Structures are given as C-alpha cells and as structure tokens.
C-alpha cells in the first residue's frame, strides 16, 4: 500500500511539475485614486511561478516591482509586491481572469507598506499573456505639510505582457 501511495504521489507531482512554469514581463499604467495626485505614470516588472492544479486553473506566487513617477513636487516611489496568485483560463476562448492578493513593501520613506490587490483580465497566447489590470495598494503616507498620516490607495490601471519561460 505504501508503494502504491508513493507511486501516486510521484505521478501527481510529475504532472503538476510538468505543467508549472515561470512567467516574466512588464506593465505600464495610469495612476488612479490617491496615486493620481502625486504620480504621472507607472512602470513595472512582473514575475510569477504558477502551478496548474486542474484544467484551466493555475495558482502560484507573484512578485515584481512597480515604480510610480512623481509629479510636481512629489518624489518617485515604488512597491515590491509579495502575493498569492490565481488565474482561470476559459476553455472555449483564449481569455483569462486572474487575481494577485498579498502585501506590497514600500521602497520610499514616508509611504507605508500595505495590502496588495491586483485583479486582471487578459488574452492568452501560447508563449505569452497580454492583460489589463487594476493594481491597488492600500497604505498610509505621511502628509509633511500637516505632520500627520493619511490613509491612501495607490492604484493604477495597467496594460502588461508576461512571457512564459519553460
């Protein structure tokens, strides 16, 4: 019985591992919400490792870097997300929906790390995916004029592409 369970585990792991993969890409976006007041646009890199757990459903981990370019008197700032990632590919059309959920680490003093939410819709190609997403980081920032903390949502509507590296 042990041998049968062990053989089953190896077969399952081999199937999951054969269908797993790394993806790497980038995005460009327009800041929305509180970010639109302090940033003119955003650029970033995306990285994820996904496992196919059943037909059409991939889960994994995601990270990267999003850089918000400051406008007027505001400095540039950025976030490094660390998130769980999920993606569902529709069987009959080359479209998918996805969601990254986790935390985002701020790279700027005066802007706190916060909750990271990134829903996406996209077009699935054989070696890449093109997507439109709404990236949102719930955080706090320091208002230096009034010397207090302000709840902020740093969001961006992004257009991105990821390439599958196998």
Shape category? elongated
Mean pLDDT, as a whole number? 84
What's the CATH class, please?
Mainly Beta
Q: Could you describe the largest sheet, including whether it forms a barrel?
A: 8 strands, antiparallel, barrel
Number of domains: 1
Number of helices: 2
- Strand segment count: 8
Q: Which structural class fits the helix and strand makeup?
A: mainly beta
Radius of gyration over all CA atoms, rounded: 19 Å
The CATH level-2 architecture is identified as Beta Barrel
In whole angstroms, how far apart are the ends?
35 Å
Order of helices and strands: HEHEEEEEEE
Share of β-strand residues = over 45%
Helix content: 10-25%
Kindly identify the CATH topology.
Answer: Porin
Show unreliable segments. 1-19
Q: Main sheet: which strands, in order across?
A: 1-2-3-4-5-6-7-8
Task: Write structural notes for this entry.
This protein has a single domain (21-165), classed as Porin, CATH 2.40.160.20. Residues 1-19 have low confidence and may be disordered. The radius of gyration is 19 Å and the shape is elongated. With 166 residues, the protein is mainly beta. It has two helices and eight strands; from the N terminus they run H-E-H-E-E-E-E-E-E-E. An eight-stranded antiparallel beta barrel has the order 1-2-3-4-5-6-7-8. Strand 7 (128-143) and strand 8 (148-165) form a beta hairpin. It is 13% helix and 68% strand. InterPro entries: OMP/PagP_B-barrel. This is Outer membrane protein beta-barrel domain-containing protein.
Provide a quick synopsis of the model:
The chain is mostly beta strands and 166 residues long. The chain is built from two helices and eight strands. Mean pLDDT is 84; it is low at 1-19.
């Amino acid at each position: 019985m042990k041998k049968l369970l062990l053989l089953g585990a190896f077969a399952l792991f081999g199937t999951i591992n054969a269908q797993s993969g790394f993806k790497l890409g980038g995005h460009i976006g327009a800041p929305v919400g509180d970010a639109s007041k302090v940033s003119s646009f955003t650029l970033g890199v995306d990285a994820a490792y996904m496992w196919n757990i059943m037909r059409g459903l991939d889960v994994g981990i995601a990270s990267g870097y999003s850089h918000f370019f400051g406008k007027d008197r505001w400095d540039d700032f950025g976030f490094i997300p660390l998130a769980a990632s999920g993606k569902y590919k529709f069987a009959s059309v080359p479209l998918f929906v996805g969601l990254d959920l986790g935390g985002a680490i701020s790279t700027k003093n005066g802007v706190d790390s916060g909750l990271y939410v990134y829903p996406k819709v996209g077009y699935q190609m054989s070696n890449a995916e093109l997507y439109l997403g709404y990236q949102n980081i719930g955080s706090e920032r320091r208002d230096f004029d009034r010397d207090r903390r302000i709840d902020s949502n740093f969001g961006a509507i992004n257009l991105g592409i990821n390439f599958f590296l196998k």
